[in-house]
Amino acid sequence: MQRVLISMMAEWCKPAGRVRGVLLDISGVLYDSGEGGGVPIPGSTEAVKRLKEANLKVRFCTNETQATRERFVKKLQSLGFDIALGEVFAPAPAACQILKERGLRPHLLVHDDLLPEFNQIDQSNPNCVVIGDAADNFSYKNLNEAFQVLIGLEKPVLLSLGRGRYYKETDGMKLDVGVYMKALEFACDIEAEVVGKPAKMFFLSALSDMGLEPDRVIMIGDDIVNDVGGAQQCGMKAVQVRTGKYRGQLYSWRNGS
Ligand SMILES: *[C@@H]1O[C@H](CO)[C@@H](O)[C@H](O)[C@H]1NC(C)=O
Ligand SMILES: CC(=O)N[C@H]1CO[C@H](CO)[C@@H](O)[C@@H]1O
Ligand SMILES: [Mg+2]
C-alpha cells in the first residue's frame, strides 16, 4: 500500500488537488488479523504517518466486530499505528445508535469480546437480533437461539454488523458474518438491515465527522464490494489495494481521477 499511496500523495497534496481526507480500511490494508494479534502489512505504519503529516484528515472505517473499539485501537497502537479511538468507525457503536433511536432491544449473536459495546443497551425481552462476526461462537446452538427469537417476532428485525463473505487471517481465509446473516434470512424469509460497510449511512457518518464532502475523500480498502463499492455509492473515489483478501483483479482506480 505504501508505494501506491506515496505516488498518489504527491498529486493529492498539491494546493489545487481536490483530496482533503482519506478513509482507510484496517484489516487487509493496515494489517492481517490472526492468532496473536495479527501482523502489520509492510509499509503501512509509515503510510498512515505520512498521510497525517501531509495534513490529510484520516479516518479508519472497519468492519471489525470481534472486539470493542478500545481493545482494537490498543492492539493497532501496539503494532505501531498512529491511530486514536475517535478516528475509528466501527459497526457496533453505529448499531447501538440505531437500537436506541428505534427502541429496539437486541438478542445478541456476536463475539463474546464485543459484548461490552452493548452494555448500555436494554437487552430484556428482545424484539430484534443483532448478528456480528461471532467466529467460534457461531455454534448451532447460538444460531438456533437467534433464529427462535426472530421467528417468534411478529415482524422480525435482523441487524447485521457487516455482510462480508470471508476475510483473510494469518492462518487462512475465514467465513465472515454475511454467511450466517444469509442463513437467518433464509430461515425466516426476511432481509437483514446491514450496519457498517457497505451501508451508506456508515460512510456518511465518517465523512460528517471529517467535515468533508464525499468528492474530497478517498477510500482505500482491500474489499471491492464493501470498501470500494460502498464508498463509490456515496460519491467518493476508491482504491483497492493488492493486499489482504485481494485475489488478482487489476488494481482499480474508479470513478475517474
Ligand atoms: C464463545 O466462545 C468462547 C470460546 O470458545 C466460549 O468460552 C464462550 O462460552 C462462547 N460464548 C457463547 C455465548 O457461546
Ligand atoms: C470486508 C472486511 O473489511 N472484512 C473484515 C471483517 O472483519 C474481519 C475481522 O473481524 C477482518 O479480518 C476482515 O478483513
Ligand atoms: Mg479489509
Describe this structure as you would to a colleague.
This protein has 257 residues and is an alpha/beta fold. The chain has two domains: 2-90 and 197-254, Rossmann fold, CATH 3.40.50; 91-194, 3-Layer(aba) Sandwich (Rossmann fold), CATH 3.40.50. It is 34% helix and 18% strand. The protein contains eight helices and 13 strands. Strands 5-4-1-12-13 form a five-stranded parallel sheet, with helices on both faces. A four-stranded parallel sheet has the order 6-7-8-11. The protein has a two-stranded antiparallel sheet with strand order 2-3. A hairpin with a 6-residue loop joins strand 2 (31-32) and strand 3. Helix 1 packs parallel to helix 2 (44-53). 42% of the residues are buried. The model is unreliable at 249-257 (pLDDT under 50). It binds 2-acetamido-2-deoxy-beta-D-glucopyranose (2 copies) and magnesium ion. Residues 25, 27-28, 33, 63-66, 133, 164, 167, 176, 223, 226 line the site of one 2-acetamido-2-deoxy-beta-D-glucopyranose.
What order do the helices and strands come in, and which of them pair?
Layout: H1 2-12, E1 21-24, E2 31-32, E3 39-40, H2 44-53, E4 57-61, H3 69-78, E5 88-89, H4 91-102, E6 106-109, E7 128-131, H5 140-151, E8 158-161, E9 166-169, E10 172-175, H6 177-188, E11 193-195, H7 200-210, E12 217-221, H8 224-233, E13 237-240
Helix pairs in contact: 1-2, 5-6
Bound molecules: 2-acetamido-2-deoxy-beta-D-glucopyranose (2 copies) and magnesium ion.
One 2-acetamido-2-deoxy-beta-D-glucopyranose binds next to loops.
